[in-house]
Amino acid sequence: MTATPLLDAYAAATRASAGILAEIKRTKPKPEHLAHQLGITHNTATQLLRNATYFSAEQLTDMARAQLTMDTITTIGRFCRKLSNLDINPDEFFQQSVNHATTASLTELAEHLATIVAKHNSAKANRPRADWARFSHSTDCDGKAYLNIKAPAADLARIRSLIDDEAKQTFHQGHASSIAEAYAHIITKRIIAHSQPITDPEPNPHNFKYRPFVTICHPWQLTNHNGKYATTDGSIINPSEFANAMLEPLGWATVAYKTPNNQLEFTPPIEIRARQATDAQRLILSNAHPICAHPDCRIPARYCQIHHIKAYAAGGETDLPNLVPLCLRHNKENDDNPTKPKNGRIEKDPTTGRIGHRRKPTEPLRHNRAPIVQYGAFEQAMRYFDTNP
């Protein structure tokens, strides 16, 4: 028999997968850091973190003792999550799954667990399995994105029957390379043709996704006289000015105050506009930087917040040279104070003007190299001026 030392070493390493998850559970790395450390995709890193979080330390120890591979652990976790019959003890189901995994192939294990879970859930499902539709954030090498949908079988069968004849006709007429492509064309065209964008007539809606809402407490007793707030000595307090002075780094505020009869009341929402990018600025920035500026992120700019490269609280201006789209998580985790590094911070290259992320002060600036970045207005303009100095 031919010796395979590398394959043998790899097989041994895969049997230590539960120990790897235990270390991930203990250290709690961020997905982008884990992806960089292991040389894996962000999605794979997220799956590792999900498994490490889902299983208890005792369960990881049991799987380490059984020397289960990562794919086997992922399969067990997937079916443990699918089990919805609360009459079934989840710990016992887990242990039975581990025991079966030690004697079955991965394919046999998946088939066995699918049968068992379907049987348990059909007997008594304590929670309905939710429908969902998931859109991919990234595109493939053909410039295509993906939509996966889970819905009642009868509904999907009905959809298919409604478009089946049209899809076959489209295919036979040469307008699609396959029936599957014809399905995709028909579904997307019908949704787009019969849908209208939802618009908000307000110039600045109370959008909690992009704009935080906070409560601050006024130290004095106030009396509300038709929207004007007076102190006990007769002075008039302007809540908007007070909120702006106290909360310049934030988005929306309400001032909580005590009335003379010791009742707690709140002012109407006060908009802190000074630090927010305008709609025009957001439009330009989304065109210049089509996705989140973090190098490991692919979230489109339309779903991002507008980040101040130099923090607004540190004197950063709300001007285009100081703004860039960042997704909710990376904006929240950004080290606004460069003297206190923790997660890294967004910076601008002083030579090229390109925006990137610096993990530590001693590390180089990393730029988002997703293909779509090259189609953004910033990179297109850079290429133009490089060739037309």
List keywords for this structure.
42% helix, alpha+beta, four-stranded mixed beta sheet, 389 residues, 14 helices
Shape: globular
Structural class: alpha+beta
Tell me the Rg in angstroms: 28 Å
Average predicted confidence as pLDDT: 83
- Amino- and carboxy-terminal Cα gap: 65 Å
Percentage beta strand: 5-15%
Structurally, how many domains make up the residues? 4
SSE string, helices as H and strands as E: HHHHHHHHEEHHEEEEHEEEHEEHEEH
Main pleated sheet: 4 strands, mixed
The DSSP helix count reads 14
Q: Roughly what percent helix?
A: 40-55%
**Oligomerization state of this entry?**
single chain
Are there runs of 5+ residues with pLDDT below 50, and where? none
Got a strand count? 13
Region (Disordered): 331-369
Protein name: HNH endonuclease
Keywords: Endonuclease, Hydrolase, Nuclease
GO molecular function, one term: endonuclease activity
Task: Kindly summarize this structure in a few lines.
This protein is α+β, with helices and mostly antiparallel strands.
Descriptive notes:
This is HNH endonuclease. The protein has 389 residues and is α+β, with helices and mostly antiparallel strands. It is 42% helix and 14% strand. It has helices at residues 5-14, 17-27, 31-38, 42-54, 57-65, 70-82, 90-101, 106-123, 153-172, 179-193, 239-246, 279-288, 328-333, 377-387; strands at 132-135, 147-150, 213-221, 223-225, 228-230, 236-237, 252-258, 264-266, 270-271, 305-308, 323-326, 345-348, 355-358. The strands form five sheets. Strands 3, 7, 8 and 9 form a four-stranded mixed sheet that branches. Strand 4 (223-225) and strand 5 form a beta hairpin. The relative contact order is 0.06. The mean pLDDT is 83.
